[in-house]
Write a structure and sequence with these properties.
This protein is an alpha/beta fold. It has two domains: 4-50 and 153-317, Rossmann fold (3-Layer(aba) Sandwich), CATH 3.40.50.1100; 52-147, Rossmann fold (3-Layer(aba) Sandwich). It contains 13 helices and nine strands. It has a five-stranded parallel sheet with strand order 1-9-6-7-8, with helices on both faces. It has a four-stranded parallel sheet with strand order 4-3-2-5, with helices on both faces. Helix 1 (4-14) packs across helix 7, helix 3 (51-68) crosses helix 7 (154-170) and helix 8 runs parallel beside helix 10. It is globular and about 55 Å long. The termini are far apart. Belongs to the serine/threonine dehydratase family. Keywords: Lyase, Pyridoxal phosphate. It comes from Larkinella knui. InterPro entries: TrpB-like_PALP, TrpB-like_PALP_sf. Residues 15-310 form the Tryptophan synthase beta chain-like PALP domain.
Length: 320
């Protein structure tokens, strides 16, 4: 189980390899929403996404273990549509080992190019979870690589928890957040956010947001078992993965609610941040703000922290 000491150790481990991203506010967005919003822009993070935190924490722990035994770290592998792929490639480069990344052929080219730029090898597959997992298994059998799962790994979850830890520590007021929001795909960030909030700000609610076109987490949250989305069709390419038993357990214990939004609402929120905050975010990143704007009455007058998850967007394929 992940406790506060686990999260603190993760933060200490990765601190020298990451940016402590700032806290941003925007008067226009606050006025439109009726909410006091504090954004944590992980699009400014190494690799352009929060995923650097979890990938580094997992691989640096492997490196520590290998050094203890006097060995060099062998290859690592993962499957990802983009940001976790970059995180593992980046972290592998930091420790001087090889990374094999299985990516769906439909993943944004900008993300594939970034993975290659970090020195990893990209193996393309069909855009299904089964194809991704089969590709990783083949690499493990051929190379002996260690799997760094995108979210079903406590080392990854503890690394992702450091974003919420910083958010809670860095906002300068004497009270507390009423709510912290994060998007949910496989649930690694949401699990880490919920755990960090539980330990550091227990009066704060954690509310997740999910695309209607990949709405498995809300079903799993209600039923108590891992469910599949009724259909997969969303612009938020980073949130198409289903939860695991591990992440569902953390989420059901520490998350208050999961809200869903349409692609049109995601695009509107994404455009609002581009126009008013002058920063680049990807569609998955806009999902929590879209959910807040859709449910303004639920959040009216509250202090809300939102983790902006990443900015790795294909500039040639903007939805506006």
């Amino acid at each position: 189980m992940i406790n506060l000491e686990t999260i603190q150790a993760a933060h200490d481990r990765i601190r020298s390899h990451i940016h402590r991203t700032p806290i941003l506010t925007n008067r226009t967005i606050n006025e439109r929403s009726g909410v006091e919003i504090y954004f944590k822009p992980e699009n400014f993070q190494k690799i352009g996404a929060f995923k650097a935190r979890g990938g580094l924490n997992a691989i640096l722990q492997l490196s520590e273990q290998e050094r203890y035994y006097g060995r060099s770290l062998g290859p690592v592998t993962t499957h990802s549509s983009g940001n976790h792929a970059q995180a593992v490639a980046f972290a592998a480069r930091q420790v001087g080992t090889k990374a094999y990344i299985v990516m769906p052929r439909t993943a944004p080219q900008v993300k594939k190019d970034a993975v290659l730029g970090y020195g990893a090898e990209v193996i393309e597959c069909e855009p299904t979870l089964e194809a991704r997992e089969a590709g990783v298994q083949e690499i493990i059998e051929q190379t002996g690589a260690v799997l760094i799962h995108p979210f079903d790994d406590d080392r990854v979850i503890a690394g992702q928890a450091t974003a919420a830890k910083e958010l809670i520590e860095d906002v300068d007021f004497d009270l507390f957040f009423d709510v912290i929001m994060a998007p949910v795909g496989g649930g690694g960030l949401l699990s880490g956010t919920a755990l960090a909030t539980h330990y550091l700000s227990p009066r704060t609610k954690v509310i997740a947001a999910e695309p209607e076109g990949a709405a498995d987490a809300v079903l799993s949250f209600k039923s108590g078992k891992v469910e599949k989305a009724p259909y997969i069709k969303t612009i938020a390419d980073g949130l198409m993965t289903s939860l695991s038993e591990r992440t569902l357990g953390y989420i059901r214990e520490h998350v208050t609610d999961i809200l869903t939004v349409s692609d049109a609402e995601i695009i509107a929120a994404m455009r609002l941040i581009w126009e008013r905050m002058k920063i680049i975010i990807e569609p998955s990143c806009a999902v929590p703000l879209a959910a807040l704007l859709k449910n303004k009455d639920q959040f009216a007058g509250q202090k809300v922290g939102i983790i902006l998850t990443g900015g790795n967007v294909d500039l040639g394929k903007l939805p506006f």
